[in-house]
Every structure is written in structure tokens, then in C-alpha cells.
Write a structure and sequence with these properties.
Elements: E1 2-3, E2 9-10, E3 21-24, H1 29-40, E4 46-47, H2 59-69, E5 73-76, H3 84-89, H4 91-111, E6 116-120, H5 149-169, E7 174-178, E8 180-182, H6 195-209, E9 213-217, E10 223-224, E11 226-228, H7 229-242, E12 249-251, E13 257-258, H8 259-270, E14 275-279, E15 288-289, H9 294-298, H10 307-320
Parallel strand pairs: 3-4, 3-5, 5-6, 6-7, 7-12, 8-11, 9-14, 10-15
Antiparallel strand pairs: 1-2, 10-13
Helix pairs in contact: 1-7, 2-4, 4-5, 6-8, 8-10
């Protein structure tokens, strides 16, 4: 029996494989990885809806969906996401949309008796100059990175919402904060993607066009931690069955590398042999973002997908699905 410091008592154990399990955002990078992992783990009653048929920003529609499906478990992976350019250009959208999605799903889950819920956030919740590697205790101890502070505030609100549910209603709901993720069903849009899918698309297009050089944003010196989405999903299923506590749990690999090294690896994986240039007039973002994953390790889980192997898988998926992906 785990007794959390906020008074919630819950004995982590295997979840009921036949119970209704709702994956909010099941078509995206994170949600689709969760869906694959849950299927592989033997769950037989997974439910999910496309945003075109269920707008989670619509409170009445969200409550109606919970009333109809009556899920026992929920993974909240639905979110408006994007890279530095999108976050800094549309901060109102990222704040408003994500706060509404989170509040609607969490409140509906509470109203309809969801037993176990996992909220997925982002490592951008931590201060720009947090200690490295970043422990969970760094939350709310400093200023956020300005280029994505609106998105970060929304995710912080989600963490506090989960903690409030634990305190007020005694439910064993938890939060997980993944590092930078990549893999199948990522957003490869030139304007809306994160750094790794943006680099994959850029270098792959350079191979096809025969470009002599590729230009990337910034200096290439920031250090980032990257995790394959399938590893993230495996960690989250493990947490649902082995962890209970009020603190968000960092989900990552525990290792990082420079953006320049990432670019070199992607160029090698896609077969690009031209030059790489860096536009230093563009922002770098946070200088380093490496998560302390000791809490996850203490819960009994560590990452297993090597970065270069994960990128090879992602490039293969991108090329196979290029005609239909978000681009």
C-alpha cells in the first residue's frame, strides 16, 4: 500500500485489461503510442475519438462522451502542441485550448467516476535555468522559457488540477512529464513541428532535391534529451500499475546531446551528404533540458530504445506515410 503525502491511499497493481480505457488524443504522437502499448499489453476495450467528432474544448460534448462510454481508466494525451515558432506566435491559442481541454476532461472524469487517470504534460513546465538534470522539485521555482511559457502554464495548471483532485476527492490520479518525444504520428509541419521532426523533414527534402546545404535555427549548441514515443508509452503504463503519489514523474532517458549532434545523426540516417549551416539570428531556446529520471527508475523502469535506432525507425515511418501525415 502506498500512502501519498496528500493522504491518498492506493495499492499499485495490474489494471483490469477488460475495462473501458479512454485515450484522449489517441491519433497524435503521444496518444497513438499509448494506444499501441495498451493494445500490446492486452487491453481489450480501448476507446478514443478524433477531434473532428469530439471537440474536447466543448465542455458539454466532453461530459456527454464520458456519460456514454463510462471509462474506468483515462490517459489524457490530448493537447495543442507545436515547436518554438508556433508557441511564440500563438500563445493565446496554446494557453486557452489546452486549459479548456484539460479542465473538461478532468472534470468529466471526476463526474463520471474514473478510477485511475494519468495526465501527460511536458518538460517545458520547468524553469528556463533549472538545475541540470531537472528534478521534479524544480517545478515553480523560477521563470519559464519565454518562447513557450503559455503552453507551459497550461500544463502546470494540469498538474495542479490532478493534485487538487487527489487532495479533495482522494483519487489516485497521477501526472507524467515526458522529455522531448519523437516517433510515428509526429507533426512534421515546417511551421508547427518540434525540432527533431522538423530536422528529419528538412534533411529528407534536401536529399530528394539534391540541395548543397541545409540551414538550421540557432547555434546548434543547446542540449536536448530525446525519447522515442514507444518508450514513453511503456513508462506510462508502468507508472499506472506501479506508482502513486502527488508529484509529477519525469519520463525520459536520462541522457542528452546537442542539437548539432542530433542534426548530424539525422543527416547520416537519411543519407544526406551536403553541408549544414546555422542561422544564429534565430533563437536557441533553453540552453539545456535534461530530466532527472531517478523517480522513474525507483519505480522500476528505464528507457530501452537507442536514439539512433529510434531515429531510423522514425525516418522509415515518415517516408512510408509521407503522403498522409501532418505536413
Amino acid at each position: 500500500m502506498t500512502t501519498a503525502e496528500d493522504g491518498v491511499e492506493f495499492a499499485p497493481a495490474p489494471l483490469d485489461r477488460d475495462a473501458t480505457f479512454y485515450v484522449a488524443g489517441h491519433r497524435g504522437l503521444v496518444g497513438s503510442a499509448m494506444w499501441r502499448r495498451l493494445e500490446a499489453s492486452g487491453f481489450t476495450n480501448l476507446v478514443g475519438e478524433r477531434s473532428s467528432t469530439l471537440d474536447l474544448k466543448n465542455r458539454d460534448a466532453t461530459f456527454d462522451y464520458f456519460a456514454q462510454t463510462k471509462p474506468k481508466y483515462v490517459v489524457l494525451a490530448a493537447a495543442k502542441v507545436g515547436g518554438i515558432l508556433a508557441n511564440s506566435t500563438y500563445p493565446v491559442d496554446f494557453l486557452s485550448d489546452n486549459v479548456r481541454i484539460q479542465a473538461n476532461v478532468i472534470d468529466a472524469a471526476l463526474a463520471h467516476g474514473v478510477e485511475r487517470l494519468l495526465f501527460l504534460g511536458s518538460s517545458c513546465i520547468y524553469p528556463k535555468f533549472a538545475p541540470q538534470p531537472i528534478p521534479e522539485s524544480a517545478l515553480l521555482t523560477g521563470h519559464l522559457e519565454p518562447t513557450n511559457d503559455a503552453y507551459a502554464i497550461a500544463k502546470i495548471a494540469g498538474i495542479l488540477h490532478i493534485q487538487a483532485v487527489r487532495r479533495q476527492y482522494g483519487l489516485p490520479w497521477i501526472s507524467a512529464m515526458p522529455t522531448n518525444l519523437y516517433g510515428p504520428n509526429d507533426n512534421f509541419s515546417p511551421q508547427g513541428s518540434h525540432v527533431l521532426p522538423a530536422l528529419i523533414r528538412r534533411y529528407d527534402e534536401a536529399v530528394k532535391s539534391g540541395a548543397e546545404s541545409v540551414t538550421n535555427w540557432g547555434t546548434g549548441t543547446p542540449r536536448r534529451e530525446f525519447m522515442h514515443a514507444d518508450d514513453m508509452a511503456a513508462a506510462c503504463v508502468h507508472l499506472l500499475e506501479h506508482y502513486d503519489g502527488p508529484s509529477q514523474v519525469n519520463v525520459g532517458t536520462g541522457t542528452d546531446t546537442t542539437i548539432r549532434e542530433i542534426a548530424e545523426t539525422i543527416a547520416r540516417v537519411v543519407g544526406y551528404e551536403g553541408a549544414t549551416e546555422w542561422d544564429t539570428s534565430k533563437p536557441d531556446g533553453t540552453p539545456q533540458k535534461l530530466l532527472d529520471v531517478s523517480m522513474l527508475a525507483d519505480a522500476g523502469w528505464t528507457a530501452s530504445i537507442d536514439l539512433e535506432e529510434g531515429m531510423r525507425r522514425t525516418v522509415e515511418w515518415y517516408r512510408e506515410h509521407q503522403a498522409s501525415i501532418r505536413a
